[in-house]
Structures are given as C-alpha cells and as structure tokens.
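User: I'll paste a sequence; please echo it back and then give the predicted structure.

Assistant: Echoing your sequence first, then the prediction.
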Amino acid sequence: MTDRTPNEAHSAERYSRSPPATQCQDFMELWQARCVQGYVAVHLHSKIDLGDLAKVTQFSRCKFNRTFKASFGCTPGQYVRRMRVARAQNLMTVSGDPLCQIATESGFADQSHFNRCFRKVVGESPAVWRARRCESMQKTWGGGPA
C-alpha cells in the first residue's frame, strides 16, 4: 500500500497515462492546406475528384478525409460547395449575369442544384440574396429613389 492521498494518487494516474486518441488527431501541414485551397480555387468550375485532392496532399484517400475534416472543420464536399457558393455570391455582386450562367460558372450541375446548395449554405435563395444585396447597395451608394 502506498502513502499517497486520494488526490495525489489521482494526479499520478492522470499524468502517467498517454494522451487520449482525440488529442493525437492528424492535421494537415500548412503547405498541404494551401495546396488544397489552390487546387479547389483553380478547378472550382469543373468536377473535383477526391482522389486528386488526396494526391495534392500526398495522402491516401482515407487519411486525406480524416485530416481534411480535422484541419478545415468540414468534409471536402462541404468545403467545395461553400467555395462554389462564395464564387457565385461574388459573381452575383459584380455582374448582372443570369443565375443559370452564374451556376455553370461556379461549377454547379444546373440552376436547380445551385439553388439547393445556395439555400443550404446561405439560408435563402440566390434570387432573394441578390435582390437584397442590390437593394442594400443602392441605399449605400444613393442609387435608390429620392
């Protein structure tokens, strides 16, 4: 029997164990994360293959999925959709192009797919978002009715 108090015994046991597996998560190196971001940005308008993203980081697909989620806080698919929606928002802000054209240029299969993804990410349809954006810009820049 040892002469330790219950608190001392608990502390000794606590610090003698190796850290739990959740603290040993794999994260991407900064260069890998930047390579993924660059690859997605360049290929946003086309189909992005998970295997190609894994190659960019020099990981297997399984390790890529695990490290991507740990590093970015979302799945690769969610990240790509968010980046496509962000690109579409930018295009809607700077151009008057129709939504079907913006959907294609942002990498969505069609306008219906674009509408579903946009609503899921932003919380409202692209048409409503664009109308609000244009309305607020007119008020800001004084382009509205007097």
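The CA atoms of residues 88 and 106 lie 6 Å apart. Residues 76-94 form the longest helix (19 residues).
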